[in-house]
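[PROTEIN RECORD]
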Amino acid sequence: MTASAMTSTQPGEFRAAGTDLSERRRSGVSTGPLIDIAAAPDMIGMHWGADGSVRLGAFTTIAAIAADARLAAAYPGIAASAQGLATPQVRHLATLGGNLAQRSRCWYFRNPHIACLRKGGPDCPARSGNHLYHVAFDLGPCVAPHPSTMAAALLAYDAKVMTDQRSSLTIGELLGDGRNGGSDNALLPDEMIKSVELPSPLQAERALYKRAISRTHAEWPLVEACARAVVKDGTFQFVRLAAGGIAPVPLRLAAAEAALQGKDANAANIASAAEQATAGAKPLPMTGYKLDLLKGVVRDLLEEIAE
């Protein structure tokens, strides 16, 4: 978990597994004091409710989420998202809380010699510079896409985040709406994520996750999406679509959802909904290609779900 914490001298950072923090320390982007934290019993593992809901401790590793058979049966989109994230080595150490609270992957932010909005600078150098892998939905001054794969999946599942200071934060409340270019999330300076709660799954729902990447293995996604649906009597009774890699925060694809709700689960309706996935997009000069990727990923997800 990389939320900032205040010490008596200067801002510090929480360190759990440190998979992202260690890289930033090596590069010189993060130089302040560290506050090591250990997992309390209620912050690790999966805690199931009688209604089939589950609470995931923030210290639960991505590998544990990816490998849990019960979780995969109840929340296949969450398990598949965890399985597709990073490499086995990273998944073995990285935590759910850390994935949600990680910092921007933008190469300007990661360069210790370049000032940017995320580091208190005056502007976003990626906007007028190299933004090949950046947003296709331009929501605010910073054009770096949010890096959390788990956040997009949790958005699709209407998850709630618990911290040591607040409860029942939505993913939108945790990460903001993308219009604040100076921060990666809305955590308070000394606030720490404790757990994530998933409501009980719907009867007969299916869910899938897919990503488009620029090489075969271990690449940050250009576009990723998680889809949930209930198809009954050949009709979409329920649809949730959430995407990452396209905006400063994960986005619900509301127009695509609306295009399918109550409609026959046929190829024509799915193709029409996939076209609606890009509604509201404002690509940068170098990111228009992401719109075609998004439509393709959404169409593939929906076709597979509807089979």
The longest strand covers residues 223-232. The chain has twelve helices and twelve strands.
